[in-house]
């Protein structure tokens, strides 16, 4: 009988998943499900052995990958074919790091050279003394830069970057209070250059410069966008518009000119290392057979939890303060990419799509939410992220306690513990995966982010959905615009009452 995806999913759902402890009876389990990848900035160990992955589950998912034409889809992604079929375009984030369609790679390199020149001009003082950059953007135009800068500048940045995303004026005001208009530049980061929050914040930032005595406020603005003509129309001089290709998706855009604040904070060489780390992961993803491919393995484990074991969420805990923003970044990557209920060809999905991604930082989270992970009624797969070399110079005991807690949590979730008293018993058999990087630097961070981008792609291809559109964000924006333009009438009684109570549209 030929395999069909429906039949394979059915087999998958009916599969028995042995307890984790039982799976460890296989002598090769640790070797089979943990891999240390040598990468430009140091190795990363990927340990998926404490998940319910096992050969019978992998065998079905490998057949499903075949039916779903996964390797062909991956080729289409990398070759710059229109894999984003609903919007009729390619998804060329890998071309930004030198992997992909030759013409797109050349174009990305030329645009990056332009960005490098501007970064160097600022560092060399061509714009006078520049101590701060207020980077204004939202969603993919903010989350990636915020993560990278927070993760990589613990020891200081060449220019202090303040990322402002929220329309709530408190966000911009806080950034402005930390800066001196005389030594501050503004980056307006928006793929479309139309996003309400970003354009409103940009106008207010310009006022702040003007009111702060800056004679030519527009002369302090850099635009990062795939719509350069709109930036010029807004008033940014063409020489300070850093374009990127329309085929780079918003939540995949930190590798393009949206990464300008990263390059300004680290120096361009640091940004180049960030790209190199991501490229190494791209090559692993493209060249490694499915069985040993760390990205595919992670996505297969994700599918066990969402598709066979009924998990509606997954949690990610960074046991490194520098990675505190990683869960926020992943939320957009996973939930905006794969939170869909139709397939790429418009049919009902008929099965769960992305889990709700959430998380936090260890050890803080242990004292807040881990109770539910250990003893709650939900089964929540957990990812732990940790780094061998500490990011600080304090007593090494800090790092030892941090890492021992991280590993203790994974062990406890899996082993559980029996007690006479039910309230004190831990059921165990709760899965976790661990990523342990030798060091945290631009290259290893780049590799970790690229790993997650591809992991999301694999899940999407297995489910047959398009991870590169996001139509679900439009309706709310449209209604807010209607209200703001005075046309917001005829809502439900609750919304009408809220508007009236807030004095909006009255
Ligand atoms: O509303 C969602 C979204 O379109 C994201 O996909 C995107 O990252 C964000 O808004 C910001 O968009 P832009 O970069 O065009 O301002």
Describe this structure in words.
The chain is 46% helix and 11% strand. The strands form two sheets. A six-stranded mixed sheet has the order 1-2-11-10-8-9, sandwiched between helices. A five-stranded parallel sheet has the order 4-3-5-6-7, sandwiched between helices. It is an alpha/beta fold and 506 residues long. The mean pLDDT is 97. α12 (260-266) packs across α13, α13 runs parallel beside α18 (442-463) and α14 (294-308) crosses α18. It is globular, with a radius of gyration of 24 Å. It is built from 20 helices and eleven strands. It has three domains: 3-67 and 288-467, Rossmann fold (3-Layer(aba) Sandwich); 94-270, Rossmann fold, CATH 3.40.50; 474-502, no CATH class. 6-O-phosphono-beta-D-fructofuranose is lined by residues 138-141, 190-192, 195, 198, 250-251, 336, 470, 473.
Brief synopsis:
The protein is of the alpha/beta class and 506 residues long. 46% of the residues lie in helices and 11% in strands. The chain folds into 3 domains: 3-67 and 288-467, 3-Layer(aba) Sandwich (Rossmann fold); 94-270, Glucose-6-phosphate isomerase like protein, domain 1 (Rossmann fold, 3-Layer(aba) Sandwich), CATH 3.40.50; 474-502, no CATH class.
